[in-house]
Specification:
The complex is a heterodimer of chains A (402) and B (327). Chain A has 402 residues and is mainly beta. Chain A contains 3 helices and 29 strands. In chain A, 6% of the residues lie in helices and 39% in strands. In chain A, strand 7 and strand 8 form a beta hairpin. Chain A is globular. Chain B is an alpha+beta fold. Chain B has a 6-stranded mixed β-sheet with strand order 1-10-9-4-5-6. The longest helix of chain B is centred in the middle third of the chain and has 25 residues. Chain B is elongated. Classes of the chains: A mainly beta (402), B alpha+beta (327). The interface between A and B is large, with 67 and 83 residues.
Chain lengths: 402, 327
């Protein structure tokens, strides 16, 4: 015999569930943590830069899968010195990454926001990183690319590429930013339509002070490099060689040096992908292209430019490649130390490999909890090994004790 | 999610032999999660919603009760002379039912449905009664907040004076705030963890105060010695959605001015090297209309969870209302 259900008990229990569910404590109306950078983009922020003051290098440390446990360090090797020193700006959280913009007189660092911070503090040093002073800020998150910030060599204007794909410009002081272009407005220009612009990837100034932007083009064989003259954007990328005619081109880096503009290009994808370096001394009107370097499936992890026309790339598998100019071939470096974050020009024409020695920070989370006093993590040791293209030299030590 | 999926699948199967063990397992999981993870934060729990597992278990039990048939009670033969039984007979019958032997027999004969029903009722009493009592208490929010955060220290002395610049570039002194209750905190404008949450607590307190907010100033003093520019506190305000709050003041000054204020309020600060944020504590103060310090709230007493911090808005609101003369 089928027996009746229990409507009364069921209703009472459901009502109790609903009542108690409404009693849970509510989270505050917080904006929530800032969007974290995609994991694949973060290591590529590691790079080096050469200015009159010396050579600067950025490396990520920590190694946790949680990006807020990673933190970034800035090192400097003063001109004429063989020693690196830690010059990371103090007092500002840098879990989101560091982006550099050098001028002949100063170095400006953008500290990409992380966690609940959504805007970008800026700091500047005029003494090789011994003292930093606050400037800015940029009221937006910098893009997660190493060329998200560029300084005009003469005027000191800053060009910033934001995470939302907007290029913004500010005069020294950097408190008032104007929008120079967005991915959408640039895509709507004739140059942008020709390229089929999809996204912005780098910002720079030409040696003459013209703002330059790069992007990813949907049209094959087109390098998405644009320069602004009189407020009008025009195509300023190199023509790709016929051997790469059907390949899509991505601009990985766009950097100004004392002599011109250097672009690192990736043509094609997967095993057929190649790296090329392009040099221009006239704001992109004319380019000299390197021979393609066949990646054979390798992934570029870091790229550095300078001094002069030299470019150096860290590939996965502890591999490194360098090229010294348009007429030179790509040269493979000896096996890089494990954990090499980036390559930087060393004294006497060599290269320094900056290797994060361990993931010591993973056991020491930097995020403090309320009531535990100041938030502080100790950096793990960094080992610097000087390399030359031909031979590997003995390790030279710079170690920060934990 | 896996437990929910398994429980749901068991219910959909409609097979009692499957539903019962799954239900029991799910209830145990819910209770363990409620007690260990949500309340005590074991295994990394954040305690963001301490009661969610109770309704979850009750819903599962309710679902079971909805599906399971109720036992049919066989009609008892009418006791001889029952209509004529007097009160003595009824009393004897009731006494017989509560005798230990009878109770043991009843428990042994109880179905799983009965046990589940008793369990559900127990959970209702356990979970709902305290919350209902808290709902009925007009100062429950504050009591709960203090239970989590610790009691604030009631004091009464003149608050240290200050003269700083607000986010609009105007000079603000403590004296200029006379006549209003001041909810005061110290926020690092490039802090990426605590300060944005505290700012949201202040914003929420402003909303809770509703009409009373015109008598209350929500004031933050910059707690960063490096980024002291007005442009930074403006950026922080935009980030937190505070730039449109009429009674919000975020004050800054020169590094020397700020350090003087921190010192006067007894607040430590440390510039930490190499990519760390400024080392500082988290504090809030309640000042009355005469500029007297009336409460000192330490945000540092809790375990550092969202739930801990979310209770401060209620505490701040209640403190302000008490000073305004209506709690």
């Amino acid at each position: 015999m089928r027996t009746p259900a229990r409507p009364a008990a069921t209703v009472v229990t459901f009502a109790a569930a609903a009542l108690i569910a409404g009693c849970g404590s509510a989270a505050p109306a917080s904006p929530g943590p800032a969007a974290e950078a995609p994991p694949s983009g973060a290591p590529f922020l590691a790079t080096s830069l050469v200015t009159a003051a010396g050579t600067w290098a950025v490396a990520v440390m920590g190694g946790s899968v949680a990006s807020h446990n990673n933190f970034w360090q800035l090192f400097e090797r003063p001109a004429g010195s063989s020693s690196w020193k830690l010059v990371t700006p103090a007092g500002v959280p840098d879990n989101g990454g560091l982006v550099l913009a050098g001028t002949p007189q100063s170095m400006i660092t953008g500290l990409r926001p992380s966690q609940y911070l959504t805007y970008t503090p800026l700091t500047v040093t005029r003494d090789g990183g011994q003292a930093w002073s606050s400037t800015g800020p940029l009221d937006a998150a910098l893009a997660n690319v190493p060329d998200a910030l560029a300084a005009a060599p003469a005027s000191g204007h800053l060009l910033a590429l934001t995470a939302s794909g907007t290029a913004r410009l500010a005069a020294p002081g950097y408190t008032s930013w104007t929008t120079l272009a967005t991915a959408r407005t640039l895509a709507a220009t004739p140059a942008g339509r020709h390229c089929g612009l999809q996204a912005l990837t780098a910002a720079s100034f030409s040696p003459s002070g013209l703002p330059m932007l790069t992007g990813t083009c949907s049209r094959a064989r087109t390098a998405g490099i644009f320069a602004s003259t009189g407020g009008t954007w025009h195509a300023a990328g190199p023509a790709m060689p016929p051997s790469l005619a059907s390949q899509p081109v991505q601009v990985l880096r766009l950097t100004s040096t004392a002599t011109g503009t250097v672009a690192l290009l990736a043509a094609g994808t997967g095993p057929a992908g190649s790296l090329l370096t392009a040099w221009s001394s006239d704001s992109g009107s004319h380019w000299a292209l390197s021979p393609p370097f066949r990646l054979n499936g390798a992934t570029p992890l870091s790229a550095s430019v300078g001094p002069g026309d030299t470019a150096a790339v860290v590939l996965n598998g502890n591999r490194g490649e360098t090229i010294t100019g348009p007429a030179a071939p790509w040269r493979s470096l000896p096996a890089l130390p494990p954990g090499t974050a980036t390559l930087a020009p060393g004294p006497a024409g060599g290269l320094d490999a900056l290797a994060v020695h361990s993931t010591i920070l993973a056991a020491r989370p930097r995020i403090r909890r309320m009531g535990q006093g100041a938030g502080h993590q100790r950096p793990g040791p960094v080992r610097l090994i000087r390399l030359t293209p031909a031979q590997r030299l003995c390790p030279t030590g710079l170690t920060r004790a934990p | 999610v896996a437990a929910l999926a398994v429980t749901g699948a068991a219910f959909l199967s409609g097979r009692p032999w499957l539903i019962r063990p799954v239900l029991i397992g799910f209830a145990v999981l819910c209770l363990a999660d409620w007690v260990l993870v949500e309340d005590f934060g074991f295994f990394g729990g954040l305690g963001t919603d301490p009661n969610s597992m109770i309704p979850m278990a009750l819903l599962a039990i309710a679902g079971y009760l909805a599906l399971a048939p109720a036992p049919v009670t066989a009609a008892e033969p009418a006791a001889a002379g029952a209509p004529d039984a007097g009160w003595r007979d009824r009393l004897r019958l009731a006494r017989d039912r509560v005798r230990p032997a009878a109770v043991r027999q009843s428990v042994a004969a109880a179905s799983i449905q009965s046990v589940a029903s008793v369990g559900a009722i127990g959970l209702i009493v356990l979970g709902a009664a305290p919350m209902a009592a808290a709902q009925a208490n007009p100062v429950a929010d504050t009591i709960l907040a203090q239970a989590i955060n610790g009691s604030s220290a009631p004091v009464n002395y003149p608050a240290p004076a200050f003269s700083l610049t607000d986010q609009h570039g105007r000079t603000v002194t403590l004296g200029s705030l006379r006549g209003k209750v001041v909810l005061l905190t110290f926020l690092d404008d490039t802090c990426s963890v605590d300060c944005p949450l505290i700012a949201q607590e202040f914003r929420q307190a402003g909303q809770l105060l509703a009409g009373d907010s015109r008598h209350v100033e929500l004031v933050a003093v910059n707690y960063n010695p490096l980024n002291t520019q007005v442009s930074y506190i403006q950026a922080f305000d935009r980030q937190e959605g505070l730039n449109g709050v009429p009674n919000w003041l975020y004050l800054t000054g020169t590094r020397a001015q700020l350090q003087q204020v921190w010192h006067a309020y007894g607040l430590p600060m440390e510039i930490l090297p190499a990519g760390s944020m400024i080392g500082h504590g988290d504090y809030a103060f309640v000042l009355d209309q005469n500029g007297h310090m009336r409460q000192e709230l330490g945000f540092d007493t809790g375990p550092g969870t969202q739930a801990t911090k979310s209770s401060f808005a209620a505490e701040l609101t209640d403190a302000a209302r008490q000073l305004l003369g209506h709690s």
